[in-house]
Amino acid sequence: MPWMACACVGAVLFAWSSSAAAQAQAGAEPKEHSELDATVQAPFRATAGARATQARTFIVRLDFPDGGRLHAVRWSLTLSGPGPQGAVLRRWSGTEQVGASGRSIRLPWDGRADADARERRALVPDGMYQLRLLAVADAGTPQGTHEEQGEQGEQAAQAEQVEQRWQIQVQRERSAAPSVPAFQAGMQQLPGLEGQADYRIVHANLHSQTRHSDGGAALDACRGAQEPQTAPFGPIDAYRYAQQHGLDALLTSEHNHMYDGSDGTNSAAEPSEAKALYQTGLAEAAAYSAAHPGFLALYGMEWGVINKGGHLNILNSDQLLGWERNGRGELLADIDTPKGDYAALYSLMRTRGWLGQFNHPASAGQFLVNGQPLGFTADGDAAMVLCEVMNTSAFSTNDHETETRHSNYEAACNRALAAGYHVAFSSNQDNHCANWGAAYGNRTAVLVSSMPAGATGTATPQALTRDSFLEALRARRVFATMDKHAQLLFTANGKLMGERFDNRGPLHLATHFSNSAGREAAAVAIFHGVPGGNGSVTAIADQASVTVTPAPGPHFYYVRLTQDDGNLVWSAPVWVNQLPVQRSDQQPWKEPPM
Q1: From CA 403, how far away is CA 431, in angstroms rounded?
Q2: What percent of the residues of the chain are helix, what percent strand, and what percent coil, each to the nearest 5?
Q3: For 173-196, what is each residue's pLDDT tens digit?
């Protein structure tokens, strides 16, 4: 079979890469995955034994795998509430010397708010509360001799900052959960084939690595990122594993600058071999999809570096992009794309029809255009379709979907939306160990049309294809979930999440939700912002539906639903251009009959 031949090519390239990696130039710049990682483990609910006080313990985890360098990390954790506009009630802070071994700080909370020392500290009332973790690292203190310290100090990374936001619930008495209509009831109201939309939900993990770059290590041997192209498991292994663990689609997104077999620059690398390895990956994905109907194997690249701009995934490029050159000055890629030049990259992606995802974005220092983080360009808006709102630890070895290290990037994704980007939220795992999709139950859920374009209701449903999947991403028919059993739908005057449309008069925003494992909604928040305004994104409702009349001009809205176990589900936004109200358009919005 053709894919077997490709596998043989991959084996040859693997043997080459193992020797080539040893010749890589060291110390040219900080290695990938050497950045600050900060998370907070926050029990959503108190244990049964702490029902009266609602006390619980928060755990702040700090890691900085920077080749033995220690960093002073200043951190603070604030608790505010109840509600999104609630006051700050408690604050913890400190400074830790953090290296590769990491630090864990346990912070017991007694269920009370801080108050004047002369007053009795009261228990906080029932409600939803927000935790905000802010961690800032200095440039680092190298270990070793004085000479070694000086050499390493010249290569020290700039100060880094991580922000995380999570919710917890305080509930001593029984309270009514928000009423949210069922998911399928909402689907039946959508216009579509013969009056009913016909979509299937494809559960995908759109961020992972294999041995083609720095992933693919066996779980019992995985201690973080691998030396490029040295681990035992490649894309075929990843697709097989993901399918066996219930995923419908997996993207293996290999670091574009590691096709020379190095995390630095390999002066001995051959361009033909780097480009051939990328083509091998594309061929293996196509062959696996063809041999396994119902599962979609995707192969792409994670472009960029953390220490100079940030990572983004290119989901459907048929060519390898890069900037590194070997000792003879030859480009180790098909197309030269200068490192850190996101505006030029967006232009190329738009021209070629390539789709992108902002990976684990930061609100500061990443995706710079004209010096602005997440800076907007029309080309970027056309190319970038997803923003990773949440992922699990990239180096998790958990294969029972119980990983506790989670990162939340909603603040950064909101910044992208406010800048003008039309991106849907995604939720992935960034697997570097051989547990593709199994670290946690989070998924990127894509509503893919199951009927051919122009078909009638009697047509035979089409199989999941790369084209139908990419079409759904272009339409932003996506929701991001921490629970693979969740189903979320968000509409505006009957228009499906992801759509852009003009509107006059009232706008009815509606949420529909179901969970096949029996979880229920604990809280709902509908958010609003202005694309291109670079302003704040704020909650405007805490119910499943609301009717508003926007001011004339552009707007976006999305919903975030919190389950009764604390897992979050995000809809894609809807984008509304509100037109001035005309006298004949002043009839109120009427919701379609159930």
Answers
A1: 12
A2: 20, 35, 45
A3: 988 889 999 999 999 888 765 555
